[in-house]
Design goal:
InterPro entries: ComplexI_NDUFA9_subunit (IPR051207), NAD(P)-bd_dom (IPR016040), NAD(P)-bd_dom_sf (IPR036291). By secondary structure, this protein is α/β, with parallel strands linked by helices. It contains 9 helices and 10 strands.
Length: 252
């Protein structure tokens, strides 16, 4: 039986990966800070991490946070994976981490390099932003009567369950290095995404486009975080919003 461990296995992406990997032919272990029996803080590592990796063939590394600590967590994971003889680590990254000088992107790129130099078999999949993240951002910006949006910035949101399908496929294969990027089906202006959000939620907000400064903003404005040539996702942002609204009406 193949044993696969999913870090961040209770998160937005990880829980879907776990669901897709669980079959009679596989044991899937869920690792997070609070998930028993593999409750581990990757930033600390230690004997609990070693125990979680004992007998594991493949790791799908979904655990990540923009609040910091990803490099330390990945370093601990790689060291423990070496000790345990893990054959394959699959990592989810972001389109543009090598082009956009944004702190979280730089961290994700550093983790990619760490895996490349780890001596382990590895696979890296870069995707565009999840629909869930775009919704979170728009909710935050829509709290005031005026919704400010970065001027001349586009996005290409992708459905998280489709990303989970791809990660599960990669996890059941051999190490493949950096695979083709995965983008959502449409490159959209932030304004169009915001207006779809406002329409579905029934909110009325004045949408204002605000020019920003800095190298990261210039890279986002240039589209360095997009993958129009890899628009392989199927689910649109409107379909995502409609499905969430339906679940809310059903009490789910």
């Amino acid at each position: 039986m193949t044993t696969i461990l999913v870090t961040g296995g209770t998160g937005t992406l990880g829980r879907h990966v776990v669901e897709r990997l669980r079959t009679d032919a596989r044991e899937v272990r869920v690792l997070s800070r609070h998930s028993r029996p593999y409750a581990v803080d990757l930033r600390r590592g230690g004997s609990a991490l070693d125990a979680a990796l004992t007998g594991v063939d493949t790791v799908v590394h979904c655990a990540s946070t923009p609040r910091g600590g990803d490099e330390e967590a990945a370093g601990n994971l790689v060291a423990a994976a070496r000790r345990a003889g893990v054959g394959h680590v699959v990592y989810i990254s972001i389109v543009g981490v090598d082009r956009v000088p944004f702190g979280y992107y730089r961290t994700k790129f550093a983790v990619e390099r760490l895996l490349e130099e780890s001596g382990l078999g590895w696979t890296v999949l870069r995707t565009t932003q999840f629909h869930d993240l775009v919704l979170t951002v728009l909710r935050g910006l829509g709290r005031s009567p005026v919704m400010p949006l970065p001027a001349r910035v586009k996005d290409q949101p992708v459905e998280v369950t489709e990303v989970a399908d791809r990660l599960a496929e990669l996890a059941t294969g051999g190490p493949a290095g950096r695979v083709a990027d995965m983008g959502g089906p449409e490159v959209r202006t932030l304004e169009s995404l915001a207006r779809s959000y406002l329409e579905v939620t029934g909110r009325r907000r004045a949408v204002v486009k605000v020019p920003l400064r800095g190298a990261a903003y210039r890279a986002f404005r240039a589209g360095d975080h997009l993958a129009p040539e890899r628009a392989v996702g199927k689910g649109t942002f409107e379909e995502f919003l409609a499905a969430r609204a339906e679940r809310a009406r059903a009490g789910g």
